[in-house]
Amino acid sequence: MNKVITSYGTAFLKPDDPLYIEIESIGKYIARAGMDVCSGGYGGSMEAISKGAKMAGGFVTGITVKGRAAEPNPYVDNNIAAENLMDRIIKLINIADAYIIFKGGTGTLLEISATLELMNKKALPEKFLIFYGSHWMEVINSLKNDSKYLTELLVRNVRLINTPEEITEILEIIQSKIHL
Questions:
Q1: Domains and CATH numbers, the chain
Q2: Angle 7-160-123 from CA coordinates, rounded to 5°
Q3: Whole-Å CA distances, 140 to 107, 111, 137
Q4: What element of type H or E holds 45?
Q5: Whole-angstrom Cα distance, residue 81 to residue 67?
Q6: For 56-99, what is each residue's pLDDT tens digit?
Q7: Cβ contacts of residue 65 below 8 Å, gap of 6+?
Q8: pTM of the model as a whole
Q9: Between β-strands 36-39 and 4-8, what pairing exists: parallel, antiparallel or unpaired?
Q10: Per-residue three-class SS string for 89-131
């Protein structure tokens, strides 16, 4: 079974946006590393990473919400329809061996917060959170003000990258870790 990288990020990103193209490249790197991609399954950053993974021969899981009018993006191989938004977030978190986080809004912040809180309370094993873009440093530094334990958790697990190519070294580390 391949390792899975779950992505969090905005649905409001168009294919002609330079960030969309960068995210597509990251999807290719993930697939070429022999890993699967998982996302919320819809448009924007979710579509970009899915498209990149498919272009490189990868497998894509989308976790959508039952009854939502939007259709999964065309690059999803396996659509898992969650009962509601919170169920979707839990499924996105649990399927992952690591996370890649792109520009986003409140939904992305909710996904990050839920992931970190589950790790913080030891309800989820520690996993890498790869943040794409230096704008995330403010959020990460703000979280470090909470407690020594959370600061140490962040130092161990947060990685910041600014170009698609930078993910390759992190993917090698993730690939070398053995499931327990």
A1: 4-176 (3.40.50.450)
A2: 55
A3: 17, 14, 5
A4: helix 45-55
A5: 9
A6: 999 999 999 998 888 999 999 999 999 999 999 999 999 999 99
A7: 81, 82, 83, 84, 85, 88
A8: 0.95
A9: parallel
A10: HHHHHHHCCEEEECCCCHHHHHHHHHHHHHHHCCCCCCCEEEE
